[in-house]
Amino acid sequence: MELKTDPTPPAAPGAHPAPPLAPLPSPAEALPEPEPGAGGRKLWLVVVLAVLLLAGAAWWFSRDDDARNDLREKAASYVDGITAGTPLAGIGNVFRTAPPPPPASVTHPATEPGTLAGRNVQGTVPAPVDTGLPYGAAGPDAAGAAGGAGGAGAGAAGAGAAGAGQAGADGALPGYMPPVTEDSRVRAGFVAELARWLAARYRPGPRGGTLAVTVQALNQRLGVAQAGMVPGGRAGLLRYAFHPSMIQGLYNLYVGRFLQDLDDAAKRRGLDEAQNRQFHLALAGRAVILAGALEGVASLPDMAAQLAHVEKLAQNAVDINAQMAQAVFELDEKRAANAPRQELAAGQLRVDGLAARYRRALDEQNTAQRALVAAIRKDGGQGMDDEGLLFVAHWVERRLAADRNALAAVRAAAGVLRDLGRRCAEIGAGAPRSPAPPAPPVQESAPAQP
User: Fold this and answer.
1) Is 268 exposed, middle or buried (0-12, 13-18, 19+ CB in 10 A)?
2) Residue 149's pLDDT is what?
3) Rounded to the nearest 10 degrees, how much is the dihedral formed by the CA atoms of 278, 282, 288, 292?
4) How far apart are CA 169 and CA 318, in angstroms?
5) pLDDT tens digit string along 175-192?
6) From the CB of residue 13, how many other CB atoms can be counted at a distance below 10 Å?
7) By C-alpha distance, which of 120, 134, 107, 269 is closest to 199?
8) Which residues contact 390 (CB under 8 A, 6 or more apart)?
9) What is the CA radius of gyration of the chain?
């Protein structure tokens, strides 16, 4: 007979019976539930970032060019503001649109007759004749004058002309040259780029809007951002164009095209007719103010001496500031080393003395600057702030240091700016536009008849 035993121990007297044992889980039920890993959260983060990037790209590319340029300029101005005076100053230019590379015609300029930089004779011709017109179209007197020059060139070249003033078989004068339409170094694209930049800086408003253009920003634009569009860069542009005759010639050549470029740029920005007139009025005011500043600076008889005095006082203030900083550092070192009280008192006394000298140096510098600005404003520049006038004075002084005869070019630039201001004011007032002045005649030399 087989005895069966109960593995469950008997319960103690008076105790509650033990509950029945739970069945053992199956092997599949015994595995723990997997916890969600971090990979899923990272994936969602990547998806969200990708959606945001795509939305930002779609919003950016849906803007027009002017809006994007405006946003870039705001970002660049903000970065320039927070990095001013630091080694990162100027890094905001990475947000600005670089000017287009110069075309092959700029890197390898043409030298054919008919350009301001081509083969030409300095001087005048007997009458202002447009040599691009067919023979006789400018009147009998003009045709005779032009025919005489053309006949001389043809006879010297052996072209077989019957006499001076005879037209060729195609109806053009012998030695025909096309009219001047573009300079071979300062191209029309340089002028158009300047017009687009000016239109982008204008902000329309209920009281005429504002044109955020300072003389410093204009110098930065023409001398740095657009200097690559001219062979030789900034130095090449000044050496080539900053002469009275060249300033007047380039202005006469491009003023009509520049005003049309301003209209086109304003239209691309979405300005209506009234806003475009306000833009031209604002530009007229800026041009006249800059012209007055140039005239005021050019009228100073001792500008170089006054600027040198201001620079000397400014350098003195910088030197005293450096000494004061060193004295403060040495005093902090003594305090950290628990120096005796007498040494600390002597160090503090030296710092206080240098601080007083620094304040006096700043006062002397400011007094000299105010005297220089007041002298400039006697003959012009009343509408420009002190900082702008000092900048113009230093700019003119650098031109005079490179060329002693640059004062005539400064006065020519002032005259050109006043004429541009007059034309823009006429457009702003709704008056008929003045015709563009004729380009200076270009006549190739011709040897005399034997």
Assistant:
1) middle
2) 38
3) 150
4) 75
5) 666 677 778 888 888 889
6) 5
7) 269
8) 310, 369, 372, 373
9) 39
